[in-house]
User: Which sequence fits this backbone?
């Protein structure tokens, strides 16, 4: 699956962004930003606010000019084109529906700009309205619609022009928590059959992973890692990516030995651990060792079975928080505290102070370089 | 219990609106009513008139060509001033709306300057600039465009220019406020949908600034209609405005009823013009709406036909 997608994206890159550089004063906003999107692929720029993801979007849209680098769509450089000549559909964070125009006219705007005959405009607007299931709202004013409906209209307006590229800027940040999840699924259902190359920008890792085929994690104007949600999650390139995408227990570690099948480590305060095999690690390397809390199983202290390929660490339960869909357990293992998330199981029986064994697979022990602070 | 509560709430509400009502009644309604009463009286003493419900004064005024000419001039020049303000102040408003920080503060100070000084002083400034031996004539002669001083004062242009200078701040502030409330993402959205910068401005920004333009025009027009000092000084005795005539009647000829009826007529003309303008606006909006729904009906039928 992963390889297939990677192959697809290298085969027919629809959008190619190469070496974007941009500074505001002495602040470097974009630092050699490069990526590509295949036809029909959805890529998400994920990062904290101020990491340059929206700036990247604005450069692609033509609202900002990069100091260096290039943007190609379908093999053609668009760097010198004004925004109106780029044929890029944009859904803005605040939707930016024109308040003085009806819903019909909002969607028709881009088509009128293209001087299409009015019959075709009407046909395409109605098509877009049907797509977002708001055909009855054509003559309403934007302010008469709810937030979710406004977002669907913004989407309809962006795709009605049959854009060669779709940009989504923080599409869900203006919605409340419940609606956000609903609209996330809705948007995914709308996007999938359209097969438009889509670039989305968000700071929310769940949104990114739900919508995107591939995720590009950004920090301080630089792309730290690009990959499928699964690969970014299971093999983060560095500590920042690991901590931004999902939660982690972070330990200091030293490489003891590396073989073809596993890497043996000495974790500070925890003792010897094994991780999957990593190329490029040498003995005595100082590294960060990460374990996702949902990958840690808690077993009763007496459980005898020790399977190969697993790390077992004796632990004492310190705190237990029941959240319904999962139970968060804080345990003390050696001199370290670990967070372990348990789903299902018989958690009611556990009491703080219980002796347990924390267990996780070698493959779930992630090793990343010690980040320069 | 609930009733007692609501009665109490009502009392509180009454008390709350009593103060503004009182102020409004004493300082606004009473003088207008008095003005109306006075306009139906006949002058017989320097302090007022004996009350007698007659329309004599109105019929006389409405048949008085000299008075009507002055009313016509007041209306015409006020409309001109409003139009000129709208046209010349719109670009200024764009600059004001786009400026930030200290630049905007400086612009505001420059714009508010005429309001901070007395209108009379500002207007006398124009006398110095536009006079026969004034700055403008000197420059024009110096550059060689004119060979002898031109009379730049005591004409309608001078009045409009003077009024514009004093009143433009009202237009700029109203329009700039409306422009500033336009979401910059609207322009970006329009551009991304294929609109050139000009088209994005014309179709997206300008329509959203219309309420500001309307408010500004309303302010400039009503203030021009009641202008006194500027037309008086720059237009001279030949080109009177209605306010000047009212002043003459009340203060120089002490004919208070006549002054009162002129004031009432001025009020009626001003509100009438504003009413006409707003009615026209509403008619246009209504027509647009009707055209839109007709257009929709057409597309609906054409679709039905196609199906």
Assistant:
């Amino acid at each position: 699956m992963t390889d297939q997608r990677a192959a697809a994206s290298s085969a027919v890159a629809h959008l190619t962004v190469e070496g974007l550089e941009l500074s505001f004063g002495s602040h470097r906003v974009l630092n050699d930003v490069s990526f590509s999107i295949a036809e029909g692929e959805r890529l998400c720029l994920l990062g904290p606010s101020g990491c340059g993801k929206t700036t990247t979007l604005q450069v692609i849209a033509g609202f900002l000019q990069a100091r260096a680098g290039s943007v190609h769509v379908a093999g053609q450089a668009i760097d010198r084109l004004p925004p109106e000549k780029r044929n890029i559909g944009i859904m803005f964070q605040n939707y930016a529906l024109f308040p003085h125009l009806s819903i019909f006219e909002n969607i028709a705007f881009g088509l009128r700009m293209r001087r299409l005959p009015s019959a075709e405009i009407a046909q395409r607007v109605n098509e877009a309205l049907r797509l977002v299931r708001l055909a009855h709202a054509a003559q309403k004013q934007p302010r008469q619609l709810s937030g979710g409906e406004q977002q669907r209209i913004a989407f309809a307006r962006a795709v009605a022009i049959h854009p060669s590229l779709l940009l989504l800027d923080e599409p869900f940040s203006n919605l409340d928590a419940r609606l956000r999840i609903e609209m996330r699924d809705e948007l995914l259902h709308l996007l999938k059959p359209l097969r438009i190359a889509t670039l989305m920008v968000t700071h929310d890792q769940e949104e990114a992973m739900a919508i995107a085929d591939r995720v590009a994690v950004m920090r301080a104007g630089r792309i730290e890692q690009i990959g499928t949600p699964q690969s970014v999650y299971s093999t983060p390139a560095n500590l920042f990516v690991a901590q931004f995408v999902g939660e982690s227990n972070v330990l200091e570690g030293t490489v003891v030995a590396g073989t073809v099948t596993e890497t043996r480590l000495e974790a500070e305060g925890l003792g010897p651990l094994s991780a999957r095999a990593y190329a490029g690690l040498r003995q005595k390397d100082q590294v960060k060792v990460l374990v996702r809390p949902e990958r840690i199983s808690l077993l009763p202290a007496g459980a005898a079975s020790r399977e190969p390929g697993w790390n077992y660490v004796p632990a004492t339960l310190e705190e237990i928080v029941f959240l319904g869909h999962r139970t968060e357990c804080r345990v003390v293992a050696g001199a370290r505290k670990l967070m372990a998330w348990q789903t299902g199981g018989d958690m009611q029986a556990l009491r703080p102070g219980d002796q347990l064994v924390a267990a996780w697979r070698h493959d779930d022990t992630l090793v990343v370089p010690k980040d320069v602070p | 219990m609930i009733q007692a509560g609501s009665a109490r709430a009502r009392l509180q509400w009454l008390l709350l609106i009593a103060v503004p009502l009182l102020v409004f009644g004493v300082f606004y309604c009473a003088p207008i009513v008095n003005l109306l009463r006075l306009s139906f009286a006949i002058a017989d003493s320097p302090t007022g008139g004996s009350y007698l419900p007659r329309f004599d004064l109105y019929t006389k005024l409405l048949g008085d060509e000299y008075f009507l000419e002055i009313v016509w001039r007041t209306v015409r020049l006020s409309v001109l001033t409003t139009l000129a303000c709208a046209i010349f102040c719109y670009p200024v408003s764009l600059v004001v709306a786009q400026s930030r920080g200290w630049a905007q503060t400086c612009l505001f100070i420059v714009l508010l300057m005429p309001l901070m000084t007395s209108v009379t002083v500002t207007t006398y400034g124009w006398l110095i600039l536009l006079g026969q031996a004034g700055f403008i004539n000197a420059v024009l002669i110096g550059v060689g465009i004119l060979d002898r001083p031109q009379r730049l004062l005591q004409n309608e242009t001078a009045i409009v220019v003077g009024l514009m200078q004093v009143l433009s701040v009202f237009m700029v502030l109203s329009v700039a406020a409306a422009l500033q409330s336009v979401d910059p993402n609207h322009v970006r959205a329009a551009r991304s949908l294929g609109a050139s910068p000009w088209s994005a401005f014309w179709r997206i920004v300008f329509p959203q600034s219309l309420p500001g333009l309307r408010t500004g025009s309303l302010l400039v027009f009503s203030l021009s209609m009641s202008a006194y000092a500027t037309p008086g000084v720059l237009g001279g005795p030949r080109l009177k405005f209605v306010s000047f005539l009212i002043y003459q009647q009340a203060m120089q000829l002490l004919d208070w009823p006549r002054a009162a009826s002129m004031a009432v007529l001025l009020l009626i003309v001003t509100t009438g013009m504003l009413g006409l303008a707003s009615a026209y606006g509403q008619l246009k909006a209504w027509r647009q709406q009707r055209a839109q729904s007709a257009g929709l009906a057409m597309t609906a039928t054409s679709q039905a036909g196609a199906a």
Remarks:
- The CA atoms of residues 99 and 142 of chain A lie 6 Å apart.
- Confidence is low (pLDDT under 50) at residues 1-11 of chain A.
